[in-house]
Amino acid sequence: MRRLGWLAVALLVIGAVPLAAQEAAANPNPLTVDGGLMLWTLFVFGLLLFLLKRTAWPVLLQAVRDREARLEQQMAEAEKARTEARELLEQHRALLAGGKQEAQQIIAAAKAAGEKDREALLAKARQEYEAMLARARQEITVERDQAREMLRREAVDLSIAAASKLVETQLDSDTNRKLVNAYLDTLAAR
Mean pLDDT, 10 residues at a time, over the chain (190 residues)? Predict the structure, then answer.
């Protein structure tokens, strides 16, 4: 293969030397057609085409095919990456929507728990209020009964003192008390 390449170069050099001499001697008109020059040009073109076909053309075609394969692979990878990015975006949106929904549920649950606690506190406060009111009523009833009893005793004592001053004789105090209490009970029953 290398020998063929050197042979082509040698033929080109040998053919170019007489042509250069002829051109210098000939008419410099570019529109004239020279048959020998045309044959040598076709021969050199064919030889160059043959050498390129054997040596450079397969390498160039392989480089173009490799580049095309790389570009197709990169396009496939880019499409795959785009698809994955879309899927991740959809997952992210779904997670975000789920997070928002979960946050709304947590807020609703917290509101419900707060409302339940408020109701429980109100019920407890009402219960304590009712208990305090019942105790106060009971204490008022006990105090009232005690005050009545004290008034009754004082009334009995005053009545006995007044009666004994009127009668000027001191009667038995237990008997007098029983008598006055019986009288007051009859008055309270009316």
Answer: 62 58 57 81 90 86 94 95 94 89 90 90 91 90 86 75 59 71 72
CA distance 15 to 29: 21
Question: 177 exposed, middle or buried (CB, 10 Å; 0-12, 13-18, 19+)?
Answer: middle
- In Å, what is the CA distance from 64 to each residue of 67, 73, 94, 155, 167? 5, 14, 44, 132, 150
The tokens describing 49, both together, are 């085409």
Who contacts 171 (Cβ-Cβ below 8 Å, separation ≥6)?
160, 163, 164
Please give the structure tokens belonging to residue 170: 């001191």
Token pair of 144, please?
């009232």
DSSP assignment of 126-141 equals HHHHHHHHHHHHHHHH
The rounded distance, in Å, linking the Cα atoms of 83 and 17 is: 65
Tell me how far apart the alpha carbons of residues 74 and 80 are, in angstroms, rounded to a whole number.
10
What is the biggest distance separating any 2 CA atoms in the chain, rounded to whole angstroms? Answer: 191
Distance CA 181, CA 148 (A): 13
One-letter amino acid of 99: G
